[in-house]
C-alpha cells in the first residue's frame, strides 16, 4: 500500500514539471503589424529549445526588430530568443525595449511606434509661416512678415525628435518710415500795392506700408496764407504707429519788387500809397502855393521796377496859364472828337453778339473784368488805362469794363452803360471768370489774342498791339501821329 502511495506522488511531481492542460492566449498582428492578443485555449507542449519556430516572427511597423537566438544563425522565433525593439526617426516607442520568446510560445511583451508630433504653432502678428511637412519631426516652418514689416528673432523653427520646436517665436516689427514728399520751393512776387503775397500749395500726402491712417503735422504758415516779404521755411512731419518718422520741407520766398525812390518836385512834395516804392504803389505830385503842376499827377511803380510816365514839375502859375490858353482850343477839339466816337456806339442792345457786331472789322477791344471796384489789381490797371486812353484810341482799341458780379454787374464803355444781361453774355462768350481780375485783348475780327491776369502798363499794351495786331500801313499812320498824345 505504501509503495502505491509513493508511486502516485512521483507521478504527480512529473506531471507538474511537464505542465498541465490550461487556458491561455495566442498573439497575432493587426493590419498595422502591432502585436495584439486573442484569448484561446491551447496546450503548452514540451519545451524544445531546438525547435526553429517556437514563437511567431516578430514585426514592428515603423520600427526595427533585432533578435539573438540561442540557436544562432537566422533563427528569430526559437525558444529563448531575445529581440530588441526600436523605432525609426520621427516615431516614439510605446512598450518595452526588448521581448523574449517564452515557453508558452508567446513573446514576453509588445510595442508600437507612434508618430511624434509638435504642437501647432500660433500665428504671429503682421506675419505668417509655412511648413515643409506640417508639424511632424524634421518639418521646417519658415516665417515671413507682411510688407512694411521686418522679422525679429528666428526666421525658422524645426520640429525636433523630442516633439518640441527649436528656437523661439519671432515677431514682425515696423521699421520702415512713412514716405512724405513736400511741394517744390517757390518764389512769389508781392501783390500790387501790398507787401505780402498769398501762397497756396497742395498739402503733402503721407504713405506707409504698415499704417493706412497717418496724421501729417505742419510747422509754419498754412496754405492760402498771406506771406510777408522774405524767405519762409515750411516743414511737415508724420509718424506711424511704430513711431517711425519722416519729415520734409520747402521754402516760400516772397519778393517785393521796388522802384527807385522818387524825389519830390522842386516847389512841391509827394504822397505815396503802400510802402512808397513797392510794386503797385501810387505816388501823387503836389505843388506849393503859387505853383501849378505840369505833367502827370500820379506815377505807378511797375512790375519791371520802373515808374510809369515822367516826373511832374511845379512851375509858376502865370507860365502855366499862358501855355494853357494857347492849347485850350486844341484839347477841346480832341476831347469832343473822341466823345462823338463813343456816342456812335450803341450800348442799349440786348445781347453780347449785337454789341460785338458793331466793332467787327472796325475796332479792337480790350475787355477789363473785375470782381469788384475795390480790387487792387483793377484799381492799379484803371490808373494806367486812363493815361493810355489817347494811345489806345490811336490804335483803334476800345476799352469795355465789366465790373462786379451778377445780379449787380455793371458794364460800361467810357460813360455809356451796358445792360447787366449783356455783361453776363460777354463773360460767357469770352470765358471770363468773375473770381479774379482779367483783361482780354480781341482783334478787329473778335479773335481772342491775349489775356492778362496782372496789371499791364500802357507801354506793354502798345508794344503788343503794334507788333501783333497792326498792319504795315497802320504802323506808318501811327508813326505820323505818334506825337498827337504828347
Automatic annotation (TrEMBL):
InterPro entries: DUF4174, HYR_dom, SRPX-like, Sushi/SCR/CCP_sf, Sushi_SCR_CCP_dom. Disulfide bonds join 145-172, 287-314. It is found in: Cell surface; Cytoplasm; Secreted; Synapse. The keyword DNA repair does not apply. GO terms for cellular component: cell surface; cytoplasm; extracellular region; synapse. Residues 65-115, 116-174, 257-316 form the Sushi domain. Residues 1-19 form the signal peptide. Keywords: Angiogenesis, Cell adhesion, Cytoplasm, Disulfide bond, Repeat, Secreted, Signal, Sushi, Synapse. One of its GO terms (molecular function) is signaling receptor binding. GO terms for biological process: angiogenesis; cell-cell adhesion; positive regulation of cell migration involved in sprouting angiogenesis; positive regulation of synapse assembly. It comes from the Eukaryota. Residues 173-256 form the HYR domain. CDD domains: CCP. This is Sushi repeat-containing protein SRPX2. It comes from Cyprinus carpio carpio.
Amino acid at each position: 500500500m505504501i509503495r502505491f502511495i509513493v508511486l502516485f506522488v512521483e507521478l504527480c511531481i512529473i506531471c507538474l514539471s511537464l505542465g498541465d492542460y490550461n487556458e491561455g492566449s495566442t498573439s497575432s498582428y493587426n493590419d498595422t503589424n502591432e502585436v495584439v492578443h486573442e484569448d484561446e485555449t491551447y496546450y503548452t507542449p514540451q519545451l524544445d529549445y531546438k525547435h526553429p519556430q517556437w514563437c511567431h516572427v516578430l514585426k514592428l511597423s515603423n520600427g526595427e526588430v533585432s533578435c539573438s537566438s540561442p540557436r544562432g544563425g537566422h533563427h528569430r522565433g526559437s525558444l529563448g530568443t531575445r529581440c530588441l525593439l526600436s523605432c525609426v526617426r520621427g516615431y516614439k516607442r510605446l512598450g518595452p525595449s526588448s521581448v523574449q520568446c517564452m515557453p508558452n510560445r508567446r513573446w514576453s511583451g509588445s510595442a508600437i511606434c507612434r508618430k511624434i508630433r509638435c504642437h501647432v504653432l500660433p500665428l504671429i502678428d503682421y506675419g505668417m509661416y509655412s511648413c515643409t511637412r506640417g508639424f511632424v519631426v524634421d518639418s521646417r516652418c519658415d516665417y515671413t512678415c507682411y510688407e512694411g514689416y521686418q522679422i525679429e528673432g528666428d526666421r525658422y523653427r524645426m520640429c525636433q525628435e523630442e516633439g518640441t520646436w527649436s528656437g523661439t517665436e519671432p515677431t514682425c516689427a515696423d521699421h520702415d518710415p512713412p514716405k512724405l514728399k513736400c511741394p517744390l520751393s517757390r518764389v512769389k512776387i508781392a501783390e500790387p500795392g501790398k507787401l505780402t503775397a498769398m501762397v497756396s500749395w497742395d498739402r503733402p500726402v503721407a504713405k506707409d506700408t504698415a499704417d493706412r491712417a497717418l496724421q501729417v503735422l505742419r510747422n509754419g504758415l498754412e496754405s492760402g496764407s498771406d506771406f510777408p516779404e522774405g524767405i519762409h521755411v515750411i516743414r511737415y512731419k508724420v509718424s506711424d504707429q511704430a513711431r517711425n518718422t519722416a519729415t520734409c520741407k520747402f521754402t516760400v520766398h516772397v519778393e517785393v519788387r521796388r522802384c527807385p525812390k522818387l524825389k519830390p518836385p522842386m516847389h512841391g512834395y509827394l504822397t505815396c500809397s503802400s510802402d512808397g516804392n513797392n510794386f503797385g504803389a501810387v505816388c501823387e505830385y503836389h505843388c506849393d502855393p503859387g505853383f501849378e503842376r505840369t505833367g502827370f499827377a500820379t506815377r505807378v511803380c511797375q512790375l519791371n521796377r520802373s515808374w510809369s510816365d515822367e516826373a511832374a514839375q511845379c512851375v509858376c502859375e502865370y507860365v502855366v496859364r499862358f501855355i494853357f490858353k494857347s492849347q485850350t482850343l486844341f484839347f477841346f477839339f480832341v476831347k469832343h472828337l473822341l466823345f462823338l466816337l463813343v456816342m456812335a456806339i450803341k450800348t442799349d442792345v440786348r445781347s453780347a453778339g449785337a454789341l460785338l457786331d458793331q466793332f467787327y472789322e472796325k475796332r479792337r477791344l480790350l475787355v477789363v473784368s473785375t470782381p469788384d471796384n475795390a480790387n487792387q489789381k483793377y484799381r492799379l490797371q484803371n490808373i494806367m488805362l486812363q493815361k493810355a486812353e489817347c494811345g489806345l484810341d490811336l490804335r483803334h482799341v476800345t476799352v469795355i469794363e465789366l465790373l462786379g458780379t451778377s445780379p449787380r454787374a455793371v458794364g460800361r464803355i467810357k460813360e455809356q452803360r451796358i445792360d447787366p444781361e449783356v455783361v453776363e453774355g460777354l463773360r460767357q462768350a469770352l470765358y471770363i471768370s468773375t473770381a479774379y481780375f482779367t483783361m482780354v485783348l480781341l482783334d478787329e475780327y473778335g479773335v481772342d489774342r491775349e489775356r492778362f491776369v496782372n496789371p499791364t502798363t500802357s507801354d506793354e499794351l502798345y508794344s503788343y498791339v503794334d507788333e501783333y495786331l497792326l498792319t504795315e500801313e497802320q504802323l506808318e499812320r501811327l508813326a505820323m501821329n505818334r506825337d498827337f498824345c504828347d
